[in-house]
Specification:
The complex is a heterodimer of chains A (173) and B (100).
Chain A: E1 10-18, H1 21-29, H2 31-34, E2 42-45, E3 52-56, H3 59-63, E4 69-79, E5 83-90, H4 94-97, E6 102-112, E7 115-123, H5 128-134, H6 146-160
Antiparallel strand pairs in A: 1-7, 2-3, 3-4, 4-5, 5-6, 6-7
Chain B: H1 2-5, H2 8-19, H3 25-30, H4 36-48, E1 52-57, E2 60-65, H5 68-77, H6 80-98
Antiparallel strand pairs in B: 1-2
The chains are: A alpha+beta (173), B alpha+beta (100).
Chain lengths: 173, 100
């Protein structure tokens, strides 16, 4: 596959987590949680329709020369603790910043027995470089495992309180 | 999940989705010598195992590969230290099989 800016591309991921919808919502939207899994970015949300979204680099990323703000976007819908829709663009490098704003949707549904279903739908149309990173295609070169790794880390953190070793960013503990 | 993976047709369907996500049933069945009903049955099993996710787009049902369950197995048994050795072996296998 050779994605071009015109290719309509959607990625979908789902994970079941033994945690409340509120705990998952907090882990996705609050910086004290977002630094503990995945790429360990500090996410900064104004959780209302039209609100600003920013992601800040952690100290480890800054040591590698990352700018402070590494993502920007806008909240389209914030319905805690059920649904979050936003635009999201990576701005870590000029190549990524030149790509289109993607559309990220997060749905949180309680299933049974304290288990919650988390579904991520990421429309990465017009952002082929970031799409490849999110699909985990850059894992061998140190770009991390994308959404699959992020969601696995989120699950481990909420279920066990432990952090998976980071593949990118700072050491976990 | 292992049962879902233990079938060549289902692995073929996953390979198709790995190559390109968001395919319709029509696209998926066109590459297989099998009835539509048979393909649907395999897709249902993959959905039940959490390996395939579906989403409606207009009148079409699109199929997506969900790699998270496989990732969880990976995290369970392979830590980041053994990963280098594992990927070295996997690379060796790929390299050797190229010439077969």
């Amino acid at each position: 596959m050779n994605p071009t800016a015109e290719t309509k591309t959607v990625q979908m991921y789902r994970v079941y987590i033994k945690a409340t919808p509120q705990a998952i919502w907090d882990a996705i939207t609050r910086p004290e949680w977002t630094v503990k899994y995945g790429y360990a970015m500090l996410l900064d949300y104004e959780l209302r329709s039209g609100g600003k979204f920013r992601a800040h680099a952690n100290e480890g990323m800054k040591a590698f020369g990352c700018p402070d703000v590494i993502s920007d976007g806008e909240v389209i819908e914030a319905d805690p603790p059920r649904k979050l829709v936003q635009t999201w663009r990576m701005t870590m490098s000029p190549e990524l910043a030149a790509e289109a704003f993607t559309r990220f949707t997060c749905e949180i549904e309680p299933v049974r027995g304290g288990v919650t279903k988390l579904t991520v739908t990421h429309d990465v149309t017009g952002a082929p470089i970031w799409a490849a990173v999110l699909a985990g295609e850059g894992e061998a070169t140190g770009a991390g495992g994308g959404w699959a790794e992020v969601l696995s880390g989120l699950k481990t953190l909420l279920e066990t309180g432990q952090q998976l070793p980071f593949q990118s960013g700072p050491a976990g503990d | 999940m292992f049962k879902a993976l233990a079938d060549p047709t289902r692995r073929f369907l996953l390979d198709q989705l790995f190559e390109r996500d968001g395919r319709t049933l029509k696209e998926l069945e066109s590459k297989l010598e099998m009835t539509r009903f048979g393909v649907m049955k395999h897709l249902r099993l993959l959905e039940d195992a959490g390996l395939v996710l579906t989403r409606r787009s207009g009148r079409e049902k699109l199929h997506f590969l969900n790699p998270v369950p496989i990732r969880l197995i990976h995290d369970r048994w392979i830590d980041k230290y053994t990963e280098c050795q594992v990927s070295a072996l996997a690379n060796l296998k790929t390299e050797l099989e190229k010439n077969v």
